[in-house]
Amino acid sequence: PEVVSAAFNGDDFEVSAIQLDPSKSYILTRSLTLADGFPETVDGPFTGAASHVFVDQNAALENTRAFYRVEETEPQP
Length: 77
Hints:
Blueprint: E1 2-9, E2 12-18, E3 25-31, E4 40-47, E5 52-56, E6 67-73
C-alpha cells in the first residue's frame, strides 16, 4: 500500500491509502513511541477495494502524537 495523505478531519485522523490489493485485508495500526512496534489497531480490517481512507476516531482528543502504518492482515471470517 501507498499512503497518499494523512491529516486531521475534525477530531479524527484520516490516512488515505492506494494500491491496495482488493483480495487482501488491511488494518491501520498506531504506535506512540516506535519502541514497541505498532501494537494498536485503530481501524480495519478492510477488504475489497484498491483504495481506502482509514480513520483513527477522536485522535485529537487524546492529545498525543503517534506514528501510523497501514499493514496487511489475515482476512476475517
